[in-house]
Specification:
Layout: H1 16-46, E1 47-48, H2 52-79, H3 88-94, E2 105-106, H4 107-132, H5 137-159, H6 176-183
Parallel strand pairs: 1-2
Helix pairs in contact: 1-2, 1-3, 1-4, 2-5, 4-5, 4-6
């Protein structure tokens, strides 16, 4: 989690210490969503191969929804009395993950790497929901809605990676580059 962000005021029914804790978790979510938005556009711009148009067009609605999610998280931070830190420098300084590592590549290779990105985001979001749920049901509800959308996006990605037998071609991959190689 990021540094202490305890506000001087917050929404009724949530203490300022609780709000500071929630804001810290939301700030991490905001960074993840802003990073995901940029990663999706990077893939959109750098995807090639026979599945180009399908993947290229599949990603734009995801980009739009992820940007909306980031806006909702930033506005919740503000409603709780915090300051949403949305600058690139703050994102890079505070994130706990490495930058997306695949450049120009085949569509299926990018989807293999993107599957791992979504796995990390979904796992971290579930942890945030577990932590925030007992503190603030309104924020929990916001995050649960986002979780449903992100899991659906991952399902769309995985549909391209699944074998006829129901296995993922990227099973066991631990890095984006490994997943890209296995998928392609």
């Amino acid at each position: 989690m990021t540094k202490n962000r305890t506000p001087s005021y917050t929404v009724p029914g949530v203490g300022v210490e609780q709000a500071g804790d929630i804001i810290g978790h939301l700030q991490t979510r905001l960074h993840a969503l802003n990073d995901l938005h940029l990663t999706l556009k990077h893939i959109h711009w750098n995807v090639v191969g026979p599945h180009f148009i399908a993947v290229h067009e599949m990603l734009d609605p995801q980009v739009d929804r992820v940007r909306d999610m980031a806006d909702d998280v930033a506005e919740r931070i503000a409603a709780l009395g915090g300051v949403a830190q949305g600058t690139p420098g703050t994102l890079v300084a505070e994130r706990t993950w490495e930058d997306y590592s695949v450049g120009r590549a085949d569509a299926i290779a990018h989807l293999g790497a993107l599957d791992l990105v979504y796995t990390g985001i979904v796992e971290d979001l579930r942890k945030a929901i577990d932590h925030i749920g007992p503190l603030d049901t309104a924020t929990e509800d916001l995050l649960i809605g986002q979780l449903r959308d992100l899991e659906q996006f991952q399902w769309f990605v995985r549909a391209h990676l699944e074998t006829a037998g129901g296995d993922l071609r990227t099973a066991g991959a631990h890095t984006e580059n490994d997943a890209a190689r296995q998928a392609g």
